[in-house]
Amino acid sequence: MLKAGVLGAGHLGKIHLRLLKQSENYELVGFHDADAENGKAVEAELGYKYYSSMEDLIEAVDMVDIVTPTLSHYECAKKAIAKGKHIFIEKPITNTVEEAEHIRELLAEHDIRGQVGHVERFNPAFIAVKDQINNPMFIETHRLAEFNPRGTDVPVVLDLMIHDIDIILSVVKSKVKNVSASGVSVISDTPDIANARIEFENGCVANLTASRISLKNMRKSRFFQKDAYISVDFLEKKCEVVKMKDAPTTPGDFDMILQNAEGVKKQIYFDNPEVSKNNAILDELDSFAHAINTNTTPIVTLHDGTEALRVATMVINQF
Length: 319
Known about the structure:
The chain is 33% helix and 28% strand. By secondary structure, the protein is an alpha/beta fold.
C-alpha cells in the first residue's frame, strides 16, 4: 500500500482524508493544515494524525495529496517533488500557467507521477458515454450553482467552468483556435457568472456557461456530432444518447423516421448505456495509485491540468 498524506484539511480536504482512509490502495499517514487550530480540531474530531510541519509529513509518505487553496498549490507541489514524492493536486492545477509548466518540468526531472483532480472525468454518467463521443462539432455546457461563499476567492471560471473545459479538451482532438467570453461580477470581486465560446481548428465550437449565483444547481453538457446527440447530466448522473441511422425500407409502426428535403430518410433511436454507481473522488485517487504501482500514465495528467488552466486563463483574459 502507498503511504499517503494530505495537505489541507478544509471541506474537500476532509473528504479526501476519509476516502484515503477507506481506500484499499493507500495507508493514510496523516495530514497538515496551515491553520494549526483547524488541524488540531480535525485531529480531535476525526482521529487523523495532524502534522504541524508540512516537511515532516512529506518525508513520511509516498504520495502527497494537495487539497490546499489554489494559491498555495505551486509551493506545496515543489516541496513534495523535491523529495521525490508522487503528487495528486486538486484543480485548478496552480494559480498560473507558468507555475503549472514549471511543476510539469520538475515532475519529469524526478521521474515521478502526478495527477490533477478533475473529478468529472470519473463521473459515471460521463464514463458511460465517453467512448460514444466521436468528433463532436458543437458542444453546449451549463454549470450552475447556488451561492456559496466558499470558492469566491477565484473567478467562477476557475471555480466551476474549468470542469467543463477539461471535459471538452478530453473529447475534442484539435487545438483551440479562438476564445471569446464575457463575465459579470454580481456579489464577488471576480466574475460570478460567465459565458465562453471556444472555437477549435477542426471547426468544433463549444459554448460554456457557468454561474455561482443561480437559484438551482445544474451540471449538464450536450455533444452534437454526425448522426448523434449525447447528453450528460453530471449532477443527476444520467445520460442520453440519441442516434440516427438509415431508415429501413419498411419501417415499423413505432419507428421514428425523419425525411429531409432531398428525400433521405433516417431512423431515430435511443441507445442509453447503463450508468454504474461510484464515488468519483475515490475512483480518481485509486486510479492514481494504479498509475503509480504500474508505472503508467495517470488518467488526468499534469499536461491535461495545464491545458485546462491555459484555456481557462484565455477565458478570464477576455473579461
